[in-house]
């Protein structure tokens, strides 16, 4: 919409300058194959349904009452699944909210925070929102994080692992190197995609007082529609997140979100089985695409980052869209010849492959 | 918990100074009568249950997909119920999140914002969080807002109407006076309790380009457990809220929250009937308490603010607690001889009256 200069006077001056994040689209098209926002192709654990049914008991009478502002039941379930203490857990309304609180809690410092040039595009948005200084460090030519770059003076570090949209993972030993080089900075490892084959840094939380690990239920737990994210860290860092959260919104987790997420964390077998299915489908899809001439970065995520040297990526994305297949295309320096493709079921991936083979590249 | 000075170095300096909001407690005691957080004594509309069941269809498969980041269905339902356009509606994760975004969007100004000394105690917290300057204006001796005080230079105004915890409402004409006196400031009317007999300022939105009205589903719609709040304003102000929201969290409303709240807004008859029941019970309770010597401020809310001249209020709250009845007591200047008592069902209110008559004041 057009806002006049006169109307703009009502906005806080700093808000006039904001450049908000733009999420992947959620179109409502029939027979669409949606491989653009890294959702899981499988439904959540059947126990989620039962847990929500329980909230609805007695005419949903319990909805009239505020939820537990601490979401203690959820913290307990996460702690048990992650093998940490309850005091090591922070929860929020999606990992986006958790990340926002992380930026406010730790990164408003004299020195700039460090993150890669190619990574989750919400980081610069949070930085502007909270007036966090930033220093952006380029990935190398293989789109890998250069660990030595993260040994300079800084006000904090945030690394997505596996990185997005590259899909490439760091070893835990590399993360440990970053932690050791930065004893006075908070190092945040954003593990939105960690459950698809990468190593989690949660095992390092007990040892490093400067580590925050952030995860989400949106990908590996098939709960993107629920908005539940969490962070794991030592209690003195969790306390900062709680102070921020309680200065912003006392009750961010609704009763359905708490109950459903608890049920998901309690069903470890289902969770592991679904992750394995996605990993197996990914490996199959990568082989198929490579056989067609695609270059695919080595993925530890539920998506791949692929380019076809003979074909413009933006054009390819547009042609796939005409076939009812949506992938994510970033028209940005360095990555504008890549497509980010979410791993679907084998059947869905086959539709993508067939469409490429038989129509677009025929 | 105790955090050492050394550990504190990880916190953003400004976060070290935060004094977070403290919500009313949510204790888990058997046979407790909970009259402390202004929840509705009646369950939500039966249509809420059906709407959530629909989300669970097909093994809750839809949960694996992100919700609509715009929550358009909810904006439409609110617009229809409030008789405004869809472009006049902003939604958030409880009205607390909506208020937080309001503070960031409009109140980070050179001049201080104005609000009463006795009002929602989250306002100073947001102000500190977003570095908003404030000027606090005392209510008069009858605990009323002095409209003329809100005609001085300011960077914004926020008024709870009916006010909390006083329960006293302003007429819409008084709000219009404030709006007219402040053509260059955003005036926010926080109507969390408006549906229990006060006049809403939503009718003024079309006329005043500087008005934001904020409401919640937590009280009158019995959905405190769901976390859905909203704001109504002209589109150029809604745009500021969207810019802030999209710089913080793209998907704050989960699929259950959207579906359940839509169902609630579509059931106007149920909503009105429940509000009338609460109002009738309030009037009865006030008469009972006054007959016992209580002074009760004139309430247009789903709670009353009452004092008993012969008795210390803090002591009275403690004695009620011993009887399993929790009310809210604020140990703050000017109001430390009052109790804020949520209106329950007639049966619940009678338990309070009986407890006072037969035990505590016998």
UniProtKB/TrEMBL annotation, chains A, B:
Gene name per UniProt: hisC
Gene Ontology molecular function terms on file: histidinol-phosphate transaminase activity; pyridoxal phosphate binding
Assigned keywords, A-Z: Amino-acid biosynthesis, Aminotransferase, Histidine biosynthesis, Pyridoxal phosphate, Transferase
Uppermost EC category: transferase
Gene Ontology biological-process annotations: L-histidine biosynthetic process
Pathway assigned to this chain's UniProt record: Amino-acid biosynthesis; L-histidine biosynthesis; L-histidine from 5-phospho-alpha-D-ribose 1-diphosphate: step 7/9
Residues recorded with modification N6-(pyridoxal phosphate)lysine: 219
NCBIfam families in the cross-refs: hisC
Signal peptide feature range: none
Its EC number(s): 2.6.1.9
Catalytic activity: L-histidinol phosphate + 2-oxoglutarate = 3-(imidazol-4-yl)-2-oxopropyl phosphate + L-glutamate
The name this protein goes by in its record: Histidinol-phosphate aminotransferase
Stored Pfam families: Aminotran_1_2
Cofactor: pyridoxal 5'-phosphate
Gene3D superfamilies, sorted: Aspartate Aminotransferase, domain 1 (3.90.1150.10), Type I PLP-dependent aspartate aminotransferase-like (Major domain) (3.40.640.10)
Subunit structure: Homodimer.
């Amino acid at each position: 919409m057009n806002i006049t200069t006169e109307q703009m006077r009502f906005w806080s001056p700093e808000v006039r300058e904001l450049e908000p994040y733009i999420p992947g689209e959620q179109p409502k098209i029939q027979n669409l194959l949606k491989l653009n926002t890294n959702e899981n192709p499988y439904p959540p654990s059947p126990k989620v349904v039962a847990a929500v049914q329980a909230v609805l008991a007695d005419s949903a009478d319990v909805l009239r009452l505020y939820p537990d502002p601490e979401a203690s039941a959820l913290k307990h379930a996460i702690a048990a699944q992650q093998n940490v203490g309850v005091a090591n857990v922070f929860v929020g309304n999606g990992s986006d909210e958790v990340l926002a609180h992380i930026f406010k809690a730790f990164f408003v410092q004299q020195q700039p925070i460090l993150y890669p040039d190619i990574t989750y595009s919400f980081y610069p948005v949070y930085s502007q929102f909270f007036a966090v200084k930033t220093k952006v460090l380029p990935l190398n030519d293989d789109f890998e994080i250069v660990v030595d770059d993260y040994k300079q003076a800084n006000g904090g570090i945030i690394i997505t692992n596996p990185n997005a949209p590259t899909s490439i993972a760091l070893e835990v030993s590399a993360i440990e190197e970053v932690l050791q080089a930065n004893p006075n900075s908070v190092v945040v490892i954003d593990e939105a995609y960690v459950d698809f084959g990468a190593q989690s840094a949660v095992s390092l939380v007990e040892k490093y007082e400067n580590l925050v690990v952030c995860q989400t239920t949106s990908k590996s737990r098939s709960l993107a529609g629920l908005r539940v994210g969490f962070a794991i860290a030592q209690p003195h860092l969790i306390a900062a997140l709680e102070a921020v959260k309680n200065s912003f919104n006392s009750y961010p987790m609704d009763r359905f979100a708490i109950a459903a997420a608890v049920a998901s964390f309690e069903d470890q077998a289902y969770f592991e089985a679904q992750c394995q299915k996605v990993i197996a489908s990914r490996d199959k899809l990568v082989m198929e695409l490579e056989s067609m001439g695609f270059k695919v970065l080595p993925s530890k995520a539920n998506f791949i980052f692929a380019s076809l040297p003979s074909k413009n990526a933006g054009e390819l994305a547009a042609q796939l869209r005409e076939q009812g297949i949506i992938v994510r295309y970033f028209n940005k320096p360095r990555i504008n010849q890549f497509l980010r493709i979410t791993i679907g079921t084998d059947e869905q991936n086959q539709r993508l492959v067939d469409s490429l083979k038989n129509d677009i590249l025929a």
